[in-house]
Specification:
Elements: H1 10-32, H2 52-81, H3 86-111, H4 118-145, H5 153-174, H6 196-219, H7 222-225
Helix pairs in contact: 1-2, 1-6, 2-3, 3-4, 4-5, 4-6, 5-6
């Protein structure tokens, strides 16, 4: 039996691999068709113009479904392992709610592209990554509360590290200005970043970092799901 065939470990693996592929495939398509600047474009820009918009949308919808399944299995697992611990049960329910909201946000990103309804697209991003970061925090706290009976200290520190990576990426993505028509919070730090293109690169790199830090968190579920 292969390692990904043990238990339900195929769920987080499929979620991470498929989601990463959706970003990469739409990026490659957009580059080949000369729809975006090849030097680190925004992820959303790689899913704006057909045909990459179609690829981006359908693949992210599948990612949202895989995320939904992964979040639910994690919820049931934590509940089964801690049936009598009220604090963990409450946190677990909060985690489930946050996880479902994050998956719904991913559906919004997939179906409301940046060029069509910009603010709805931004709302989806906030739900996916903002609420998703809080979900990661809840799961990290649960990992702390469940040691040493269920989790080791290692898994707690790994999740904490990925959480900090995700949060730092959120900060640098949101608060580094690029162009007034592209980013929501640009004016806040506009005068601190006179080099517009440098700020643009920092912001786009941070967005890609955010996406992959978010996905990396689910890789820590593999051992649990086995």
């Amino acid at each position: 039996m292969w390692w990904f065939q043990q238990g339900l470990s195929v769920l987080p693996v499929a979620l991470v691999v498929w989601s990463a592929a959706s970003f990469v495939f739409s990026y490659i398509t957009a580059i080949v068709l000369h729809h975006v600047d090849p030097l680190v474009p925004y992820i959303s820009d790689t899913g704006t113009i057909p045909p990459e918009r179609c690829i981006f949308g359908i693949m992210l919808n599948i990612s949202a479904f895989l995320g939904l399944a992964t979040v639910y299995v994690r919820y049931k697992q934590v509940y089964a392992l801690n049936p009598d611990k009220s604090k963990i049960i409450k946190l677990n329910k909060i985690g489930l709610t946050l996880g479902l909201m994050s998956c719904f946000g991913l559906c919004i990103i997939a179906n409301f592209q940046k060029c069509i309804l910009y603010y709805v697209h931004v709302l989806g991003a906030c739900l996916t990554f903002g609420v998703g970061a809080v979900y990661m925090l809840v799961q990290t706290v649960l990992s702390y509360l469940m040691q040493p009976e269920v989790h080791s200290k290692d898994i707690f520190w790994i999740r904490m590290t990925v959480l900090l990576w995700c949060c730092s990426s959120i900060v640098s993505t949101v608060f580094v200005p690029v162009q007034v028509q592209e980013e929501l919070f640009i004016l806040i730090f506009f005068f601190f970043f006179p080099q517009g293109y440098t700020a643009h690169i920092i912001s786009t790199v941070s967005e890609w970092s955010l996406a992959f830090s978010f996905l990396s968190f689910f890789l820590t579920y593999i051992r649990d799901f086995q």
